[in-house]
Amino acid sequence: MTERQLAGLSMLGVSKPYEMLTNCTYLVDREFDVYGLKIYGAPWHPMPGYSFYRSRGQAILHKWNNIPPKVDVLVTHTPPLGHGDYNAWNKCDGVLAGCAELLNTVEFRVKPKYHVFGHIHDMHGATSNGYTTFVNAAICDHKLRVDHGPIIFDISVPYGHSKTESEQSISDTTSSVPSEEDSDSGST
């Protein structure tokens, strides 16, 4: 957000824009349990100059290490290397923009049923490694115009749970809101 936008929110008594959300769960290094399905969200990416940036290597791996094992659906901003990450946009000249540290985390430790991400606008679609289905759910082009429809997938509710359960629980793996260090400092 621009300084002007933040100043406007501050005048309204809002220090963080996500505090205004009332009908969704903001997943920043958080796990959300719904009907027995574990969903974890992490916004980190290795693209300098934007919020939630961490450099490739140990800095971003430190963030991926927060993802708990046995997650059913992993939601990240950036793709893992080799899945929906071919960047044909003219400024990138065919670079594979995915994160190798994220790929290793997903394939060797977390092993989710689904890994949903965006970031690479032109690679909308799904791939699989035989266990995890990787879904690039980006719907906009580089000018933020809607260019693709949504991707819808079904996932079975775990044994002992049903979609008629009245209670949904939220469990945090780190904290209920992002810390100052984790928001959009853009460095590390």
Describe the secondary structure blueprint for this structure:
Elements: H1 3-11, E1 30-34, E2 37-42, H2 58-64, E3 73-76, E4 86-87, E5 95-96, H3 100-110, E6 114-117, E7 125-128, E8 133-136, E9 169-171
Parallel strand pairs: 2-3, 3-6, 6-8
Antiparallel strand pairs: 1-2, 1-9, 4-5, 7-8
CATH superfamily: Metallo-dependent phosphatases
> What's the story with the biggest beta sheet?
7 strands, mixed
Give the number of DSSP strands.
9
Assign the CATH topology: Purple Acid Phosphatase, chain A, domain 2
Q: Please give the order of strands in the largest beta sheet.
A: 7-8-6-3-2-1-9
Report the end-to-end length measured between terminal Cα atoms.
20 Å
Q: What would you call the shape? A: globular
- The proportion of strand residues reads 15-25%
Counting DSSP H or I runs of 4 or more residues, the number of helices is 3
